[in-house]
Design brief:
InterPro entries: CheY-like_superfamily, OmpR/PhoB-type_DNA-bd, Sig_transdc_resp-reg_receiver, WalR-like, WH-like_DNA-bd_sf. By secondary structure, the protein is α/β, with parallel strands linked by helices. The protein is built from 8 helices and 13 strands.
Length: about 230
C-alpha cells in the first residue's frame, strides 16, 4: 500500500515510516502543508496519515480541500488535539479515523488495517479471492488451506491485488503502491514480482487485461505442488 505521511515531528515521522516499511508499505513523508498539497496532486495514495498542527497551515485545510475535490482517499488523522469537539470536527471534515498522540505503533497499524478492510469492502480480518486467503493482521496468505511462503514484496503485491480485486491495476499503479519516492526501481521490477507470485499461486490467478492491467481472478481448484513452494 502507498501511504502519504504528513507529519512535522521528525522523531514521530521516522518511527512511523520505519514501522510502515516493516509492514511492507511504501511511505512518502512530507512535513508541511505546501508539500502535502503538491504530493496530493497525483492520485497515487491508498491512505493519508495526517497531522493537524503543521507549519504554514492546518491539516484540516488539506483534508477539506481533498474532499471538496471529490477525492475519496482514506485519511487517518494523527494528532495531539484531544478534545471531543476537535475529534468531531475532524471526522465531520471527512476523516476516516482519528488517533491521538502519543499513540502505540501497534494500534496505529491496526487502525490502518481496519481502514484497508473498509476500503476493500472486506469487513472480516481475512480477505479472500476464490481459495486464496490473505490475513493482513499476521501478514500471511494461504492457498487451498495451505500456507504460502511469500517474500515481503510478493506479499505486498498480493495485498494490492487483493484489495483491488474487482478492478484491473496497471503496471504503474502497482509500482506506485509498492515503492516510495526514494526507491531506485528497475523498469521491469513489477513483472519480476508478478512472475514470482504467479509461480506460487498459479498463472491463471493473475490475469493480464490487454490495455487495462493486471487483475486477481477467483479460481477454485486444487493447487499444484509447485505453487505451494514444495
Amino acid at each position: 500500500m502507498r501511504i502519504l505521511l504528513v507529519e512535522d515531528d521528525a522523531m514521530i515521522g521516522r518511527a512511523v515510516r520505519l514501522a510502515l516499511g516493516d509492514e511492507g508499505h511504501a511511505t512518502d513523508w512530507v512535513r508541511d502543508t505546501p508539500s502535502a498539497s503538491i504530493a496530493l496532486t497525483e492520485p497515487i495514495y491508498d491512505l493519508v496519515l495526517l497531522d493537524l498542527g503543521l507549519p504554514s497551515g492546518d491539516g484540516l485545510d488539506i483534508l477539506r480541500s481533498m474532499r471538496r475535490r471529490g477525492e475519496q482517499t482514506p485519511v487517518l488523522i494523527v494528532t495531539a488535539r484531544d478534545s471531543v469537539t476537535q475529534r468531531i470536527t475532524g471526522l465531520d471534515a471527512g476523516a476516516d479515523d482519528y488517533i491521538l498522540k502519543p499513540f502505540d505503533l501497534d494500534e496505529l497499524l491496526a487502525r490502518i488495517r481496519a481502514v484497508q478492510r473498509r476500503q476493500a469492502q472486506q469487513p472480516n480480518p481475512s480477505w479472500s479471492c476464490g481459495d486464496l486467503v490473505l490475513t493482513p493482521s499476521s501478514k500471511t496468505a494461504s492457498l487451498a488451506g495451505q500456507p504460502l511462503n511469500l517474500s515481503a514484496k510478493e506479499y505486498a503485491l498480493l495485498e494490492v491485488l487483493m484489495q483491488h480485486q474487482h478492478q484491473s491495476m496497471t503496471k504503474q499503479q502497482l509500482q506506485d503502491a509498492l515503492y516510495d519516492w526514494d526507491s531506485d526501481v528497475d523498469s521491469n521490477v513489477v513483472e519480476v514480482f508478478l512472475y514470482r507470485l504467479r509461480r506460487k499461486i498459479g498463472n491463471e490467478r493473475i490475469s493480464n487485461q490487454r490495455g487495462l492491467g493486471y487483475r486477481l481472478e477467483p479460481v477454485q481448484q486444487p493447487p499444484v505442488g509447485e505453487h505451494l513452494g514444495h
